[in-house]
Specification:
Strand order of the largest sheet: 1-3-2-4-5
Helix content: 40-55%
Order of helices and strands: EHEEHHHEEH
Structural class: alpha+beta
Distance between the termini: 55 Å
Number of helices: 5
Number of domains: 1
Amino acid sequence: MNNSNQCREFKSPPNAGSRDGDAFSVSVKSYPIPECDVDAWEAATVGHMEEILPEPPLGCYYVNPRFLVHASDISEAFLKTAHKARASWCRYISAVLGPSNMHREMKKAPYMKRQLAFAGILFVNGVHIAPQDWSIPRVTAVVSKALAREERRQQRMINVTA
């Protein structure tokens, strides 16, 4: 599916930044809109993720084909900015494909492709957070569980080598 003739610049990137005296700082990097093709969108997100890899990234990152949102800690400001970036990208997709075609493409895409091309990916301290867990309490719980699993795994490795 190649709709490159329907591509047009989308002019409403999310606003972010730091406020004087506040303890948060959220940065947003925007990229040129990739070719209007689901595979190109997936590849663009993977390419943006490679900027923050190979090490598991510390801090909070939301990545989609158009934006990379970063903050050092999870905060309402970060999640709000990530939601704005996601909504901005989804509005663009809907305008290009049409709402019914967008939903059809999303439904037929496998889970990770759906996240990479359509919803975007959220990482907190190297832990992937599923879209349904995008709230501070749920993110904290998911990250805590992942860190506890990793700690238990490392402890088992130490016990095996000892």
